[in-house]
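Milestone M4 deliverable, item 7.
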Amino acid sequence: MRKILILNAKGGSGKSTLATNLAAHYAHRGEHVVLADFDPQRSSLDWLATRPTHYAPIHGLAAADGDMPRAVPGASHMIMDAPAAVRGKELKALVRRAQTVVIPVLPSPMDTRAAAHFIAELLTVGRVSREKTRLAVVANRVREHTLAYQALERFLKSLGIPFVATLRDTQNYVRAAERGLGIFELAPSLVSHDLEQWQPLLKWLRSKRSLPRA
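Output delivered:
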């Protein structure tokens, strides 16, 4: 089973938006998807509760510490929405569950500084340092051609880990979330630019570079 963790210690970075849209993408393709919500706020499961029954199903899991199975029978993908402020032993426990960690970062000085400290800690986790869990970063909710985005882009490129996608700040994510959908399930004419921005992330997730070293 493919296990992808959406992770950032700072709240408000868009983890649930990334997790729900990634789950919707795989479900839309016909995959058997599990959306595991580790966040006490349960934003991903709230999204799933509004999902229309005639859309591709996604299996939700309220992932209490120690209670979540490492595999779900028949599932092809597990997307994990991590809580904020995760550190130390809790961080290591979450990383152990994942083959791949995707870290969304917002374009603000506070977010980049917080991300720098968090990624420095994450790189010391044994599974990451041994490349048993792979990392990538995504610039999230950006307005391109702004100074804030240019600063974020320079920062992400300096990290030494894959910087795989830039996702713009748009109401399309809000429109989709209100209906329990992902942007992949909206009218293509409405979201064509957003779908294009997702392609580098999806391509990286399909590549061997996103999987643990053998």
